[in-house]
């Protein structure tokens, strides 16, 4: 039977998804959260015509000729506007960020003036409406500032605050539970040193990926290769209000690969099992009610690559992010590549400058899915489509950048 393509599997895992419920958070705590609805400005910015420079607020009609002499009748400073109106032949001293007094429409910078008591003389011409920030030139009250599905950056926090929002509506963070299966697994620093032991590593990378995508993470630890124990871990996730259960290990079809039987025994309907992917062919995905289960391979590189391709997009989709799937950037091959087979390949690669402002992507020489040292040395995943023909160095390609 033909294996499912990466694109089809991704459409099932992170395709159209109903976002989680919204909650309100202080704007100061909104970094990295995803907006649950459009955010409109509660006020205009600036709220009135304001000076962009230190100088004198004047009527443009009074300074058509240079020099022009005007009487200074007051002062307007930021937060302390001039209370009256400016008539013909009059002006006010004004400072950056101050509201233009009624009757004025232009600011003459102080460098182009001379002052003698209450008289100001212009020493250089100033065009009408110069050095003024018009009301609403940044944004107007009621205008959309940020769109639903947008992940909040530091710059967005500034905009939301300037739009006069103390709190903003965001999607609830998905709750992710991690479990690793395997009789051979021991936690770092807790093994006996026996050759049969393998130190746990997958959960650390997966937890970091999940948190970076916006999730809250709970680690259920290591579960032995026992059907009852694995079923108990699945039930623990269900009872704990978890949105996504992520397993690592036991996803293949060997005698000790018990994740699929355990999921089926707990009425988890598998929609994905085995895809045309390297590394990560045994990946599983299923649902039971609101719980989504992602079964990743035990090999550490396969686990991490599948976490990037499927777990992070699923977490982003549950928050309503508008473009949840992985993103590629263009590069050029740094070496000749042979033809690819029927599996889509995500090769660990280093990046270098191509001398023309672009990137050269060179696969590391060994691509075994158990080699963490190779994964750590890589800068990106080089994407090769299924059945891609042989390609020579310099050929355009696509890469997924590691963001950590």
Quick description:
The chain is α/β, with parallel strands linked by helices. 18% of the residues lie in helices and 30% in strands.
Q: Could you explain how this protein is built, in words?
A:
By secondary structure, the protein is of the alpha/beta class. It has four domains: 6-20 and 172-318, 3-Layer(aba) Sandwich (Molybdenum Cofactor Biosythetic Enzyme, Chain A); 31-41 and 138-171, Molybdopterin biosynthesis moea protein, domain 2; 50-133, Beta Complex (Molybdopterin biosynthesis moeA protein, domain 3), CATH 2.170.190.11; 329-401, Beta Barrel (Beta-clip). It contains seven helices and 26 strands. The strands form seven sheets. Strands 7-4-6-5-9-8 form a six-stranded mixed β-sheet, with no helix packed on it. β20 and β21 form a beta hairpin. It is elongated and about 90 Å long. The relative contact order is 0.13.
List the helices and strands and how they pair.
Blueprint lengths: L5 H9 L7 E5 L12 E2 L9 E2 L3 E4 L10 E8 L13 E5 L11 E4 L3 E4 L2 E4 L9 E2 L10 E3 L7 H9 L4 E5 L3 E7 L3 E2 L11 E2 L2 H11 L3 E8 L3 H13 L4 E5 L10 H7 L3 E5 L3 E2 L5 E5 L2 E6 L3 H19 L10 E5 L10 E10 L5 E5 L8 H6 L2 E5 L11 E6 L3
Parallel strand pairs: 5-6, 13-16, 13-17, 14-15, 17-21, 19-23, 22-24
Antiparallel strand pairs: 1-12, 2-11, 3-10, 4-6, 4-7, 5-9, 8-9, 18-20, 20-21, 22-26, 23-24, 23-25, 25-26
Report the C-alpha radius of gyration, rounded: 31 Å
Q: Mind telling me the CATH class of the largest domain?
A: Alpha Beta
The assigned structural class equals alpha/beta
Q: Could you give the distance between the termini?
A: 37 Å
Number of domains: 4
CATH architecture of the largest domain: 3-Layer(aba) Sandwich
Mean pLDDT: 95
- Give the count of helical stretches: 7
Name of the CATH superfamily of the largest domain:
MoaB/Mog-like domain
